[in-house]
């Protein structure tokens, strides 16, 4: 593009009335980029011959290879219509569902949209989606029905059939718009009703004359402007590949001259059920009823059909010539002789009915200029969240005026919205690009170069002979005149440039903001406020000091976006799309920039598809980790939809909208941002382990008799009891330390589900509680705020309410600790007789009754018990995953003190008779209780244990291990279950794919909670839950099975117990009958458990070879 | 005996021999390959899937069956199945290829899991994933030794990995309270063992919160216990000092 047109564009930018900001939206492969090509070709940026093949706006390599657009890119075009000159800021958007976030970014910046629909395929899922998006953003769409040539060439429809087909498509599109409209009206109505309802409640006057209005107000609402209709001029029929397109107006004008009918009449009758009565020279209604050809068919389609017939199908040279002369088109001989009829066709068509002309005309006439921005849209953009526009501060409301006027005066506030950040090679920036030199510069450089040359000559050979010198100089001058030398000089210059900026070479990517000026003039180097999405203008106006979500930055450079190229600008007036450099630090993905702090941030972009495909990313070489992290940060900024996070497990997780999007993100990471080899894998799925109450029924829903119980006990006893371990039938586990000095008895119990979730919710509170307790134990007093204390009391009472029944009597007061990490959803309960340990609630006790604290003391090694419990809850016995919702009750804890206690303790004999066990090694044990000799501060102290430090190591360590083992065995003595993380899955689906939605959900162990129909549409909203473990590849399968008509959204919701027992084997007769001896049918929890165990390298009870006989029986070397 | 020719040479394939010496005699049984270890672990419950035949041999490859007298003399019974079970349980066997392979693989994973659990990236204080550790172990060509415990090997691996990547054992967070008298002296002794001192509070007693390498824990424990004669206390605040929660970029 020449410089002259850049100047032109700059000039045009100042006249907002003649600016059109528009984007091209459509389903994938409906010809957006091809259409964009045709429009770009009008400005001479690409050859019109290549239009449709080049796909100029698909600048990425993978876009060209895959043939789909992956990002939205903008280009500014200049269009002259009569005496009016227009500036079109055209944004091409991707059609693939994975990139619908890019569509959102494009739509936000535009005032109008060209919706492209394939004439053969009709309305597709993404067409619906983009129409919805355009609707939600309040931008006006126009329709282009593309690929009409396919109706002729591929489907071989007659013109009459084609007309019917086109009509059908138009109806489909209008139906989608209609549903959007009705749903909006219904929603508004519901809101109004609610308000009225509230009003009624407020007034509390129940008048008798209540009027029920069921008209739904649909009739009242005006929707005439909404629909697409050729006679309204907002529909263009086109074939972008062949380069033709037309609107009704064009034909109306042609025929009004030819036939002498008024253009207005033709305009109204050219589309619709009208026919031409040749005798009466009248246009009559009811073509279909009378079996006549519609006017549209007769005057428009037939012409095109005959052209295709002549050129493509029959290749009738004479006829072509006839057509050409009648159309008044001049053809090049080269095109006429070309063997491919398509070339000839496009040569004729592009002169007869150029698509760009039709589309651009429609755009300029039908789409609004920035001046006509709707007040409703402004209000919607500016009212964040649920806040009404009226509730915003006054200064902010005043901004609306500036907005609506779209004025670019000097004192108008600047408002810019950045919809995305995109990465550009630093080398491609105009500052760093080699630009053609002006003549003066050339001359200057020539002199310089000559000088340098001469100098170096002089330096090299101190006394060069004259005869040598002159020819060289002559040669120099000769060379310099040719352009080659200029190239050389340029290269030299660029080399020196490179040398001077080595740091810049390091940073290969520069981020440029994709933005639009909504008010004021953006100037290079201007300082602006960056408003985060949560920024509240009221806050900024009320106080001057630190305001959250507000920062300052400088717009270092402004660019005109020309597809893959950028042109630097000094200033950009209102209503234009632009690129802004130098914001990468202050803007992450999108932001609102303004010079006025009163400006509210715009509402966040409305994404059709939320990211749901999760993968874990790792560098091939572990040492490249920092590079990966940096790359992922860049990727996060460059992609509006991708999410990047580091999980607690240390995984780097990338969340994308779909498989294609994922592929693009990985390519970007590999080639642009991180520049290392990476591998993506299934992310690690967390599980939890828990115990449940013994089931009452077996797997075939038979009541469990005694028979089964015996089986369980048998299983437990087998191989578990050893010299130091004993498990009794009630699930009480008694374990002695290896040195036979300490014994603990523990029982595991399931916690009620509500308790578990309560504990999970109040993890933070428990953490504070733990801290308070710790300082209390040290004898220090911590200032506890009243609120915290109240919260703790609240938690305690809630627990008391939830833990009812005989089993849990006084349980809350006896809570010893929480785990794992002291804050988890498991409880250690102190049920030791004669051990009055202060509970975790001691901070409350201190306030309520301070006197009693002295009587409660902590035993030695109390810490070891807690540590053992923490370890046990951190990794359960099933697959070393954390426990959840388990209560360990310590029933006995005896320590035989070593032979010579050095301190005077009151020894309390406490002999325990283990009547049930014969092989118990523990006959009796003494319990040491440290008397409150130093009463007052409660303190845990470590005693010298020199005597007990035997071959087994220190007692504390042994006790930790024993406690941990005891907990694990107690856990195993109960029916164990696995808990899986669940996603709630919200699915929007049309009625016809509902069955397949259920199929996919069922296959992946999902469960549908409820479904309902969205009012005013044919969409169903289904809510289901789905295990996280089954979600890998879910979105992809879903889209494939439903042809993209249903889109799921996944959000983590809760943990759920899998009802099946991973260790289950058939035990009762019925179960044998039903499942057979081996229980071959898949056990879901066993599958999960084994997968985790295998991943962790734990022993998996699996046969290496299933059938011994079926092994390869030959030796290896034969 | 006939001449040993290729036609009458019968090769025993798919046979794993389990041998046992009892009563001065050697007994063998013929089992299927890759099954004996499973049987011992309890994964295989079908005896016929393990044994080729229920007979007990003196030499499997020669096909010499043990005499009944010898069996009763050595085992005290002539129930062949019972004897087979005993030999299966106690006899010595050669581990077959797949068994060895799966054993080594399991161990490799186990080691990687232990390393991943114990270590963090010192820059981010976040753990590495098991996959990454496995890759790194392959990069340094670590070979698993089947007769050493996985924990021991894991410690060895950590040492070796430190040379090629940023890795460090996750620190333990300890808190100890020392009586004022010994505090100064003890602190000097403890100093080389502590990695980071997070807080230090000296009024009546010295209270310190610090990060230590888990390897030094026992040493510190011992030191405090002996030196202060039970008046100092040591508390483990967290076993692993890692970043908690997810972080979004």
UniProtKB/TrEMBL annotation, chain A:
This is Elongation factor-like 1. Residues 437-471 have a biased composition (Basic and acidic residues). It comes from Cyclopterus lumpus (Lumpsucker). SMART domains: EFG_C (SM00838). Residues 432-479, 918-943 are annotated as: Disordered. GO terms for molecular function: GTP binding; GTPase activity; ribosome binding. PANTHER family: ELONGATION FACTOR-LIKE GTPASE 1 (PTHR42908:SF3), TRANSLATION ELONGATION FACTOR-RELATED (PTHR42908). Keywords: GTP-binding, Hydrolase, Nucleotide-binding, Ribosome biogenesis.
From TrEMBL, chain B:
Keywords: Cytoplasm, Cytoskeleton, Nucleus, Ribosome biogenesis. InterPro entries: Ribosome_mat_SBDS_CS (IPR018023), Ribosome_mat_SBDS_N_sf (IPR036786), Sdo1/SBDS (IPR002140), Sdo1/SBDS-like (IPR039100), SDO1/SBDS_C (IPR046928), SDO1/SBDS_central (IPR018978), Sdo1/SBDS_central_sf (IPR037188), SDO1/SBDS_N (IPR019783). Its main location: cytoplasm. The gene is sbds. Required for the assembly of mature ribosomes and ribosome biogenesis. Together with EFL1, triggers the GTP-dependent release of EIF6 from 60S pre-ribosomes in the cytoplasm, thereby activating ribosomes for translation competence by allowing 80S ribosome assembly and facilitating EIF6 recycling to the nucleus, where it is required for 60S rRNA processing and nuclear export. Required for normal levels of protein synthesis. May play a role in cellular stress resistance. May play a role in cellular response to DNA damage. May play a role in cell proliferation. Residues 14-100 form the Ribosome maturation protein SDO1/SBDS N-terminal domain. Belongs to the SDO1/SBDS family. NCBIfam families: RNA_SBDS. Residues 172-239 form the Ribosome maturation protein SDO1/SBDS C-terminal domain. Residues 109-170 form the Ribosome maturation protein SDO1/SBDS central domain. It is found in: Cytoplasm, Cytoskeleton, Spindle; Nucleus, Nucleolus; Nucleus, Nucleoplasm. Gene3D superfamilies: 3.30.70.240, Ribosome maturation protein SBDS, N-terminal domain (3.30.1250.10), SBDS protein C-terminal domain, subdomain 1 (1.10.10.900). Associates with the 60S ribosomal subunit. The lineage of its organism: Eukaryota, Metazoa, Chordata, Craniata, Vertebrata. This is Ribosome maturation protein SBDS. GO terms for biological process: cytosolic ribosome assembly. One of its GO terms (cellular component) is nucleoplasm.
């Amino acid at each position: 593009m020449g410089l002259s047109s850049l100047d032109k564009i700059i000039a045009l930018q100042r006249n907002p009335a003649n600016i059109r900001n528009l984007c091209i939206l459509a389903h994938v492969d409906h010809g957006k980029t091809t259409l964009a090509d045709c429009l770009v070709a009008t400005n001479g940026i690409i050859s019109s011959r290549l239009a449709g093949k080049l796909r100029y706006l698909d600048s990425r390599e993978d876009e060209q290879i895959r043939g789909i657009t992956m990002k939205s890119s903008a280009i500014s075009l200049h269009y002259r219509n009569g005496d009016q000159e227009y500036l079109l800021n055209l944004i091409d958007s991707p059609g693939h569902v994975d990139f619908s976030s890019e569509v959102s970014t494009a739509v936000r910046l535009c005032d109008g949209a060209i919706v492209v629909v394939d004439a053969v395929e009709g309305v597709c899922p993404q067409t619906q989606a983009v129409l919805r998006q355009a609707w939600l953003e309040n931008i006006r769409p126009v329709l282009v029905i593309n690929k009409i040539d396919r109706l002729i060439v591929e489907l071989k429809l007659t013109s009459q059939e084609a007309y019917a087909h086109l009509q059908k498509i138009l109806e489909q599109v209008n139906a989608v718009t209609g549903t959007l409209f009705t749903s909006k009206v219904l929603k508004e109505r519901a809101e109004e009703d609610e308000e009225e309802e509230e009003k009624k409640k407020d007034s509390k006057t129940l008048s008798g004359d209540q009027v029920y209005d069921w008209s739904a107000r649909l009739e009242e609402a005006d929707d005439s402007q909404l629909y697409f209709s050729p006679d309204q001029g907002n529909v263009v029929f086109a074939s972008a590949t062949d380069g033709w397109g037309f609107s009704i107006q064009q034909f109306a004008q042609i025929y009004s001259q030819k036939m002498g009918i008024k253009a207005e009449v033709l305009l109204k009758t050219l589309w619709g059920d009208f026919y031409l009565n040749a005798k009466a020279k009248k246009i009559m209604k009811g073509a279909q009823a009378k079996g006549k050809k519609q006017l549209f068919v007769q005057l428009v389609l037939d012409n095109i059909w005959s052209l295709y017939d002549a050129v493509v199908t029959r290749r009738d040279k004479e006829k072509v010539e006839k057509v050409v002369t009648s159309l008044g088109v001049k053809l090049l001989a080269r095109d006429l002789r070309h063997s491919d009829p398509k070339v000839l066709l496009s040569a004729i068509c592009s002169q007869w009915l150029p698509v760009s002309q039709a589309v651009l005309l429609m755009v300029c006439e039908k789409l609004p200029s920035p001046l006509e921005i709707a007040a409703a849209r402004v209000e919607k953009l500016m009212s964040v969240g649920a806040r009404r526009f009226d509730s915003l501060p006054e200064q902010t409301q005043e901004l609306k005026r500036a907005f609506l006027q779209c004025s670019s005066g000097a004192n108008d506030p600047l408002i810019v919205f950045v919809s995305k950040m995109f990465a550009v090679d630093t080398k491609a920036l105009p500052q760093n690009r080699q630009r053609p030199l002006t003549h003066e510069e050339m001359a200057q450089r020539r002199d310089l170069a000559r000088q340098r040359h001469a100098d170096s000559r002089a330096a090299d050979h101190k006394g060069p002979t004259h005869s040598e010198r002159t020819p060289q100089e002559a040669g120099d001058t000769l060379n310099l005149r040719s352009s080659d030398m200029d190239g050389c000089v340029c290269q030299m210059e660029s080399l020196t440039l490179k040398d001077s900026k080595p740091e810049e070479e390091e940073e290969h990517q520069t981020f440029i903001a994709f933005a639009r000026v909504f008010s004021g003039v953006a100037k290079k180097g201007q300082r602006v406020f960056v408003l985060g999405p949560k920024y509240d203008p009221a806050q900024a106006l009320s106080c001057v000091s630190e305001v959250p979500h507000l920062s300052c930055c400088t717009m270092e450079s402004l660019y005109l976006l020309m597809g893959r190229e950028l042109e630097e600008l000094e200033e950009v007036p209102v209503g234009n799309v632009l690129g802004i450099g130098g914001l990468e630090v202050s803007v992450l993905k999108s932001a609102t920039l303004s010079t006025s702090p009163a400006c509210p941030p715009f509402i966040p972009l409305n994404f059709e598809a939320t990211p749901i495909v999760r993968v874990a990313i790792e560098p091939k070489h572990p040492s490249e980790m920092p590079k990966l992290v940096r790359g992922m940060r860049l990727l996060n900024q460059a992609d509006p939809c991708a999410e990047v996070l580091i999980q607690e497990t240390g995984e780097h997780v990338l969340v994308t909208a779909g498989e294609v999007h994922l592929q693009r993100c990985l390519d970007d990471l590999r080639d642009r941002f991180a520049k290392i080899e990476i591998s993506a894998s299934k992310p690690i799925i967390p599980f939890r382990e828990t115990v449940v109450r013994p089931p009452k029924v077996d797997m075939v829903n038979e009541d469990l008799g005694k028979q089964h119980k015996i089986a369980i006990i048998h299983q437990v006893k087998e191989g578990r009891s050893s010299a130091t371990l004993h498990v009794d039938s009630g699930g009480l586990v008694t374990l002695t330390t290896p040195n036979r000095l300490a014994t603990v008895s523990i029982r595991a119990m399931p916690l009620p589900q509500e308790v578990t979730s309560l504990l999970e919710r109040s993890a933070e509170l428990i953490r504070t509680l733990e801290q308070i307790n710790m300082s209390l134990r040290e004898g220090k007093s911590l200032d506890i705020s009243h609120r915290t204390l109240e919260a703790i009391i609240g938690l305690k009472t809630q627990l008391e309410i939830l833990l009812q029944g005989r089993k849990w009597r006084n349980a809350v007061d006896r809570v010893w600790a929480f785990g794992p990490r002291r804050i988890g959803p498991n409880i250690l309960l102190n049920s030791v007789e004669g051990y009055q340990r202060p509970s975790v609630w001691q901070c409350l006790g201190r306030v309520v009754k301070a006197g009693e604290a002295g009587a409660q003391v902590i035993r030695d090694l109390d810490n070891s018990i807690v540590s053992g419990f923490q370890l046990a809850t951190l990794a359960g016995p099933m697959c070393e995953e954390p426990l959840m919702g388990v209560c360990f009750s310590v029933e006995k804890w005896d320590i035989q003190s070593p032979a010579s206690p050095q301190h005077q303790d009151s020894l309390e004999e406490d002999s325990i008779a283990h009547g049930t066990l014969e092989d118990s090694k523990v006959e009796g044990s003494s319990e040491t209780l440290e008397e409150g000799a130093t009463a007052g501060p409660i303190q845990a102290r470590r005693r010298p244990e020199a005597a007990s430090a035997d071959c087994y190591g220190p007692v504390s360590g042994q006790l930790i291990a024993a406690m941990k083992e005891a907990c694990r065995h107690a856990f195993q003595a109960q029916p164990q279950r696995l808990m899986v993380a669940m996603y709630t899955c919200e699915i929007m689906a049309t009625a016809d794919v509902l069955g397949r939605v259920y199929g996919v959900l069922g296959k992946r162990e999902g469960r549908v909670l409820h479904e309902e129909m969205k009012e005013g549409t044919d969409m169903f909203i289904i809510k289901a839950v789905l295990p996280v473990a089954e979600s890998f590849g879910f979105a992809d399968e879903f889209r494939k099975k439903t042809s993209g008509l249903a889109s799921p959204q996944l959000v983590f919701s809760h943990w759920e117990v899998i009802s099946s027992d991973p260790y289950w084997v058939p035990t009762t007769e019925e179960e044998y009958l039903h499942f057979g001896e081996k229980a071959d049918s898949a056990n879901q929890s066993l599958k999960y458990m084994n997968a985790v165990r295998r991943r962790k390298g734990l022993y998996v009870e699996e046969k290496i070879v299933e059938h011994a006989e079926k092994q390869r029986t030959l030796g290896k070397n034969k | 005996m006939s001449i040993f020719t290729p036609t009458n040479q019968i090769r025993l394939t798919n046979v794993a021999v389990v041998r046992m010496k009892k009563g001065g005699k050697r007994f063998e049984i013929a089992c299927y390959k890759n099954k004996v270890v499973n049987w011992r672990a309890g994964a295989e419950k079908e005896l016929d899937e393990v044994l080729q035949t229920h007979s007990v041999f003196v030499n499997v490859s020669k096909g010499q069956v043990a005499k009944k007298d010898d069996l009763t003399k050595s085992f005290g019974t002539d129930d062949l199945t019972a004897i087979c079970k005993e030999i299966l349980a106690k006899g010595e066997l050669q581990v077959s290829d797949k068994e060895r392979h799966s054993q080594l693989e399991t161990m490799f994973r186990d080691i990687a899991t232990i390393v991943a659990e114990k270590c963090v990236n010192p820059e981010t204080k976040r753990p590495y994933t098991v996959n990454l550790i496995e890759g790194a172990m392959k990069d340094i060509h670590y070979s698993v030794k089947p007769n050493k415990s996985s924990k021991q090997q894991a410690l060895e691996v950590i040492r070796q990995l430190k040379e090629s990547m940023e890795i460090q054992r996750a620190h333990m967070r300890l808190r100890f309270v020392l009586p004022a008298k010994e505090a100064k002296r003890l602190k000097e002794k403890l100093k080389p063992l502590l990695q980071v001192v997070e807080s230090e509070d000296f009024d009546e007693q010295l209270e310190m919160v610090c990060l230590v390498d888990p390897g030094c824990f026992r040493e510190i424990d011992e030191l405090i216990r002996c030196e202060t004669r039970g008046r100092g206390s040591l508390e483990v605040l967290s076993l692993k000092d890692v970043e908690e929660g997810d972080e979004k970029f």
